[in-house]
Amino acid sequence: MVRVCAVLMVGVLSSAICLSVAVASPQQLPTAKPPAPTVPAGQKPPAPGPPTVGAQPGAPTPAPVQTRTFTSPAGLIFTPVRPERVADFEKVMAYFQAALAKSTDATVREQAFGWRIYKATETGPGGVVLYVYVLDPAMMGPDYGIGKILADAYPDEAAQLWKLYTSAVAGGGTLLNLTPVKPVEPPPLDAPAKGKPSPVPQP
User: Fold this and answer.
1) Number of Cβ atoms within 10 Å of the Cβ of 168
2) Quick check: 21 and 174 in contact, CB under 8 A?
3) Percent of the chain at pLDDT exceeding 70
């Protein structure tokens, strides 16, 4: 697990920071109201239509629920956190790690076996703090979202914990599926062209 973290995080960390920040924030702002249509002189404005069932005027569009599932035997999840909310995020992570440790659910216990949480030393764009979930091994199929695990372990505190979490993260996060590169017999190299000396590697 440590080897996977050390080798892979160096190669994907920079690009993943940019991808993570680019994802829409879990708390979306209300969309601006379109301008009222112009009514020609002498005509009455059309009567307002019936309200849409279940819609609340002025309410922001809810953010879509992200499914965090893997299709490979290992994976990474990058979560950017607002620097001023690091304490809140790590408070939620303390509850989350305790929930993993005490869960009696067989699937959650198997997920917890390969679930490690790391904090990047380098800051991301805009000063965000990047947290990385390393899943090795990862279960293919089950959801790796933290909300249900927290709700099952702390039903009375779940709403408060989720509020802390959503106000702390700076984006929806980025998930990467990782496939191991297994060692194979080195294939033969192309023979150098005749009459041309082989290039000498520079130090």
Assistant:
1) 24
2) no
3) 63
Indicate the domain borders of the chain.
Answer: 2-21+67-178
Nearest to 153 by CA among 82, 98, 81, 92: 98
Task: Give 129's strand partners.
Answer: 81
> b/e per residue, 185-196, with b = 16+ CB within 10 A?
eeeeeeeeeeee
CATH code assigned to 2-21+67-178: 3.30.70.100
Confidence band for 198, pLDDT divided at 50, 70 and 90: low
CA gap 115, 107 in Å, rounded = 12
Give the residue carrying structure tokens 């929930």: 99
**Token pair of 184 as six digits:** 């194979």
Q: 84: which 2 tokens?
A: 């001023």
- Mean pLDDT (whole number) for 84-102: 98
Query: Given a cut of 50, is residue 20 above it in pLDDT?
Result: no
pLDDT at residue 7, as a whole number: 38
pLDDT score of 66: 61
User: Cα(92)–Cα(150) distance, rounded to whole angstroms?
Assistant: 9
